[in-house]
Every structure is written in C-alpha cells, then in structure tokens.
Design a protein that fits this description.
425 residues; alpha/beta; TIM Barrel; globular; binds zinc ion
Length: 425
C-alpha cells in the first residue's frame, strides 16, 4: 500500500493542526499536563498547555487523544526488516545461530518484500518514527520508504561478491549502489553504507569504506564487539566464526574487536556501532569515547544469542552516545523499540526518564539527527507516538514505557502525518 493511502490525517502541508492529549512528554523538558502541540507544515510550532496553544491558534484543527499521552516517536538505531519471526532459526549461541541463519537466507529472500512490509508496519504500530535499518545491498529500502517512517537504510556489502572482489572494487561497487538507491526517495529517507562486521568484511575494504563515507560526510553502520565468537575470531582467529568463515584469514590480531575497529578506522562520530556487548572493558570504553562513535544497544538480541551485557552505564558516563535498537525478528522478540527500552531499563536499573530519553532523543543523538527529531520542541519535525496510559505513580515515564511496550501506540505521527491510528485508541 502506498504511503498516501495510509495517511489518516496530514498536517504536513499548509494546514495548522493541534495534537492534544492528557499530557505531553517533550523529553527535552518537563511533562505538560493537559498538553498540546501545534503543528504546521509537518513541523512543531509550539508546545504547551492546551488553552495557551489553542488561544494562539483558534482556527487550527484539533486532534484530541483523551486517555493518552503524546511523546516523541521511537528512534530505532539498529534494526533489520528482512526477517519474519515465524521463519527464524531459533535462539542459540551466536555462531550456531548465524550458521543457521545463513542456511535460511536464500529461502528468506523470496519473502523479503512481505517480511519487510510486515516488519515496518509492526514498528509503526509500536510508535516508531525513525528507523536505521540494515540489509544486504539495501534490499529493504523500498519497504522502509513506503512505511511512512523516516529513516536510513544501511546497505551491507560483502567484498568477495561485490564488484571485482578487490577492496577498491568492492567499495566502489557499494558506493555506486548507494548512490542509485538514493534516487527518487521520499523526503527524510536515505541509503548509506554499512560495513557488516569485523568477521565478514576484510580490514582493507572496511577501512576504505569508512574513509570514503567519512570524506562524503555520510553516516556508517557497523556491527561491533557483539559475541564471544567475534571476540575470539578477532583476538585469536579461532572458534565458531573462524569455522563458518574459514576463507576469511584476517582474524587472530591479538586485539579486542573495539581496538581492531579503531585501527582499521571504523570508529568515528559518523559511525553507529551496534551491540558492543562482549569484550568491552574500560580500555574499550575509552576508545569509544575518544573516537566519538555512537552505540546502538540491543539487549534482547544479546541475551538471546549468548552475548554479554553491553556496559551501557559506563559508556554513558564516559559520554558515548547510546541509542536503542531492536535488531531483527530472528534475534529478538519484536520491533517495538519501547519494549526493548523497558528491558534496558530493568537490566541497568535506569529510571523511566532515562529510558524514555534513550528511546527517543538519545537515539536521535546517536544517529546525528537530534536537531530534527527525538524530542517535542519547536522547529523539529512533528514525530510523535501517542500512547494510551494515565500515569498515576511516581515514575510517570516508566508507566508510559510500560504501556507502549505492552500495547504499542494508539497513534503514530511522522512529520505531521498520522500514519497509524488504532480504532478506539
Ligand atoms: Zn544487527
């Protein structure tokens, strides 16, 4: 279904619309009871109490969500749309899981369109307004683009099968592919390069891809320091991943994956590194801080695949930008970013306010789009999740997260367009 058919209300062009609810949680400032947000041309004009917002714009259309709160939409900093939960290989230790995944890839390719559409829909219904998606050669980009979400599709490449197979040729190939992918896209959707991982992309290709994208001022996505097997492969050149990728000879560097990532120039402020779950000690956190790289935290995937707990509190204390990611449906339970965030809140002992920030504004900072989205502030895009909840306790933000985790969003608004609204919500 084309995005135009999905739009329930369009406050993106010309019209002024007030979105009102029992409360607004801007995230960048304190909650407003009886709050409202004025939207024009898809952007937030003002936020405040309903009476003030209404008083200033008496002719604007009002969209009222009673029994609900309005918060910034979820920013998913690491997801895959190509997998359908029912076809998954099941959870297992990482290299065993990856071996099973690879066996299923060819069959899975036949269902790619349907899987990606369903996945994007699930994310939208969970209040996601921006998604950083990774798929081989950007295969899921059309489905991200038609979902109505804003986002980036990171095109993964595998050097041995790309271009002429040399690092230079492989990187030329993926840069060219990404240029093509960027043609004719809706606003706020783009394609960028991903260096899939330290065990699938050789160091020369990885370094070259990182340099070229950095020179072009473009973001880069990587998986890094995810599993015990990746750690063993990079450090010693042995273990489950060395067995699967026996033709990849560059392991056994004697370095941790983060140190290795630094040496091959993968780590920079434009880079978003997913997982950072295994083998990330104080020295690695210092490298992450120094390089300015951002982290995408995917705690359920890590738990399901026998990876360790990412040292998120230590990274945050060090000033590393951390956002949340769901990963894909073959390694995790859902594409509901708020549900993922609630797991992180419980895992690290965060309060609800920290959780809500991680799911929204911190995710936007990790991606480098905090000037455009991630909080409800004048000038930013009108990207909201409307969640049915009447918080009554001491930690209102936690109650909001719990409701969004449990029931998803009553409505999802991207750039002023209502692209999902639950009947009766
Ligand atoms: Zn991933």
């Amino acid at each position: 279904m084309a995005i135009e058919e999905r739009i329930i209300l369009d406050a993106s062009a010309g019209k002024k619309t007030i979105f009102a609810a029992d409360a607004v949680f801007p995230v960048s400032s304190g909650a407003v009871r009886g709050g409202a947000v004025l939207v024009e041309d898809g952007r937030i004009v003002s936020v405040g109490e309903f009476s003030e917002v209404r008083g200033a714009e008496p002719d604007a259309e009002v969209r009222e969500y009673s029994g609900c709160v309005i918060l910034p939409g979820a920013v998913n900093t690491h997801a895959h749309l190509s997998f359908r939960r029912e076809d998954g290989p099941g959870y297992a230790p990482f290299s065993e899981w990856l071996g099973n995944l690879i066996e299923r890839l060819e069959e899975n390719e036949k269902r790619l369109a349907e899987n990606a559409r369903d996945g994007a829909r699930e994310a939208v219904e969970a209040g996601t307004t921006f998604m950083a998606e990774s798929s081989p050669y950007g295969g899921c980009l059309p489905y991200l683009a038609e979902s109505g979400m804003a986002g980036t599709c990171f095109a993964e490449f595998f050097p041995h099968e790309s271009g002429d197979g040399t690092p230079e040729g492989a990187v030329e190939f993926i840069m060219g592919r990404v240029r093509e992918l960027n043609e004719g896209l809706p606003p706020r959707v783009d394609a960028r390069v991903s260096v899939h991982s330290p065990y699938t992309v050789d160091p020369e290709s990885a370094r070259l891809a990182a340099r070229r994208t950095r020179e072009a001022g473009e973001r880069l996505a990587i998986h890094l320091s995810e599993s015990p097997e990746e750690y063993e492969f990079i450090m010693k050149g042995t273990g489950g991943l060395a067995d699967i990728f026996s033709s990849n000879p560059w392991g056994g560097t004697g370095k941790t994956p983060v140190k290795y990532g630094e040496e091959i120039e993968l780590l920079a402020p434009q880079t978003i590194a997913a997982h950072l779950a295994t083998g990330v000690g104080d020295k690695e956190v210092e490298i992450l801080r120094r390089s300015g790289v951002a982290a995408a935290h995917c705690p359920r995937s890590n738990e399901n695949l026998g990876c360790d707990v990412s040292p998120v509190p230590a990274m945050m204390r060090a000033g590393v930008r951390v956002g949340m990611g769901t990963d894909g449906l073959w390694s995790s339970q859902s594409l509901n970013l708020f549900e993922e965030t609630l797991v992180a809140v419980n895992l690290h002992g965060f309060d609800g306010e920290t959780g809500l920030r991680l799911a929204t504004l911190e995710g936007a900072r990790a991606i480098g789009i905090e000037g455009e989205t991630g909080s409800i502030e004048a000038g930013k895009w009108a990207d909201f999740a409307v969640v049915e909840v009447s918080p009554s306790g001491l930690d209102a933000e936690r109650e909001v997260l719990e409701a969004a985790a449990e029931n998803g969003a009553a409505a999802t608004v991207v750039g002023g367009r209502v692209i999902h609204e639950r009947v009766g919500g």
